[in-house]
Amino acid sequence: MANQSTSNIFLVEQVTQVARIALKNLVAKGLLPWPQLYSKEFWDIAISEDFSDVARLRDQDPVLTPELLQEFIDETNDILGEVKDTVEEFVQVTKDHVSEVHQSLKSMDQKDEERLFHDDIESLRVKNRNLEQRAKETEKKVKEQARVIAELRAKVRVDELTGLLNRRAFEKDIVKEVSRVKRYKCPLSLIMCDIDHFKEVNDTYGHTIGDKVLKHLAHIWKKSVREIDAIYRYGGEEFIILTPHTAKEDAFKLAERLRKRVGSYRFVVEPPDKYIKITVSFGVSDIKADEPILAALERVDKALYKAKKSGRNCTVML
């Protein structure tokens, strides 16, 4: 009976050690620069184990620029897979030990328990419940962190004014799409567009109206393209559309359809009846598997330039 009690006590010590090692691993894997996401136990371990460089960061507020935020998200996304494995291993080992302790306690004779080990066993039970709760909390925190990272990644890719994807997203996405072109030999086309005389809109009606025009334009286009097409705000009034599995001739037809819809739309300046009409110029080209991305961008930009030189409100394909 004494041997069984010793075994049970050692079992709980193992569980405690698993928790400490797991938390130390979280520190060693570089889970920064947002340490305040983690629990009080995290900092207790960091301080008691003399992770002084980490502990000093506890009361520091992070200063984030868009570039630092993007870098943090990219690095944390890579780390998260390793961290998730570490925490899941910790949770699983903890659950296994908790189960073993439960089984061992159940197997003990009730009379001997009351006579010899009542206090020790009650203490074990309390520690066991606490450890089980910590395992659940740790698992929950990792899932929440993954959710927050996913939301941050989405925000970094979106233009706040129009709700379209931004230039940073385009620069990442086009690399992936070109890889598919090279691998599967499928067509990929680019549409570049620019609002004609947009500076005059801002100068005449103000930037508030100019922003409304951009928002409405984005709304029109999002309803007019396929789900696989992606629209990006490339600059102030300049946009790019990626059209996977699309030859440039079909992309030209899409550009013309978008141009005509914008041309027929009334952009309200002062309700109910004061409005303006705008036009858009388009350049269209495809991306060849054996050429650099920059070459395709220069070609579609040249097509847009020709459209504007040709009197605007037209589409040029190269």
Provide an overview of this structure.
There is one protein chain. This protein has 318 residues and is an alpha/beta fold. It has two domains: 2-156, no CATH class; 165-317, Alpha-Beta Plaits (2-Layer Sandwich), CATH 3.30.70. The protein is built from ten helices and eight strands. The strands form two sheets. It has a six-stranded mixed sheet, sandwiched between helices. Helix 1 crosses helix 2 (40-48). It is elongated and about 95 Å long. The model is unreliable at 1-16 and 32-38 (pLDDT under 50).
Task: Map the helices and strands.
Layout: H1 2-28, H2 40-48, H3 52-55, H4 66-107, H5 110-156, E1 165-166, H6 167-184, E2 188-195, H7 198-205, H8 207-222, E3 230-233, E4 238-244, H9 248-263, E5 267-270, E6 274-276, E7 280-286, H10 293-309, E8 315-317
Parallel strand pairs: 1-3, 7-8
Antiparallel strand pairs: 2-4, 2-7, 3-4, 5-6
Helix pairs in contact: 1-2, 1-4, 1-5, 4-5, 7-8
Please summarize what this structure is:
The protein has 318 residues and is an alpha/beta fold. The protein has helices spanning 2-28, 40-48, 52-55, 66-107, 110-156, 167-184, 198-205, 207-222, 248-263, 293-309, and strands at residues 165-166, 188-195, 230-233, 238-244, 267-270, 274-276, 280-286, 315-317.
